[in-house]
């Protein structure tokens, strides 16, 4: 094992962090809720286009410092795309071969981006197969399985070190309501919500954390029952968030509220936000925006003032052939009109009149 390679690799990761400036915090006026300010932490501006740039860098630090990644080690990941895009970028930087195991339904744009960073894509037919297939491939290649679902909550320094939470609170410091009443995020691995929930407690902020969860996901039921054996027959229709099984990096005890968001509502909110900001974002950003609007309307109804922060997780360019394509929506049977009306009324009037009463799926108890 070449200690010199390890030192060089760590120096390269540090230099990448040094070259990267922090992502922006955008302010969104809510015409219907004066006195409530909404902020969007725009993680789509990272070099690899999503919030996963932070996690990928942390997972490489974790793997190298644990001696699991060495010169020439093949890197394998189970990912719906965003993490694989970011990991492929760092693997190429370190001269390591990279393999992404993903569902065959992953957007072609993400597949192309992984190939752009010289990564190899390894497809499985059923989303639930990604874990065992990634493990098997890593063994066959004598490589390292990064396993974001297990290590996301462990590899990220939740006490600081410029993690996403520290960045949000620093950027809010000069705002009229610097301590947000709510932070709203989605959960795929659960790493982002774990980092933010822990940081809020560690720093003693009077901020509540809400997770906006797609309706096919098991996280909402797990948060309510703490039954880690829960599974859901269907994967989430929103890339990157919502899971068919309980993931090890999802930490329910630091989450104050779960908000279930149906697919049409996520996509309607995604499109609406892109109109408001004049820039396209991905589906999980729509899920977050929908959750944040619901909380803003509830605060307004209670006569509360304050700020809410949510996340833009990735750019919309990756979904031009799916979420932003009307023909694709039709073939998938997604009708957005009612959901668009809900979002518009919430945004312009501050009233919460949801078209669909979002309810979590009846997860199947494991045999
Ligand atoms: C686009 C997108 N949004 C949100 C998330 C959720 O982030 P986390 O895995 O930290 O829960 C992911 C995770 O892969 C993602 O790809």
Q: Which segments are poorly predicted (pLDDT under 50) over 5 or more consecutive residues? A: 358-367
- CATH first level of the largest domain: Alpha Beta
CATH-derived architecture of the largest domain? 3-Layer(aba) Sandwich
Percent range for β-strand residues: 5-15%
> Could you tell me how far the N terminus lies from the C terminus, measured between alpha carbons in angstroms?
44 Å
Structural class, judged by helices and strands? Answer: alpha/beta
The average pLDDT is 94
* Count of folded domains: 2
CATH topology of the largest domain: Rossmann fold
Strand order of the largest sheet: 1-2-10-7-8-9
Q: Indicate the radius of gyration in whole angstroms.
A: 20 Å
For the sheet with most strands, the description reads: 6 strands, mixed
Roughly how much helix do the residues carry, as a percent range? 40-55%
Q: What count of helical segments does DSSP give?
A: 13
Bound molecules: pyridoxal-5'-phosphate
Order of helices and strands: HEEHEHEHEHEHHEHEHEHHEHH
> Rough shape?
globular
User: How many beta-strand runs?
Assistant: 10
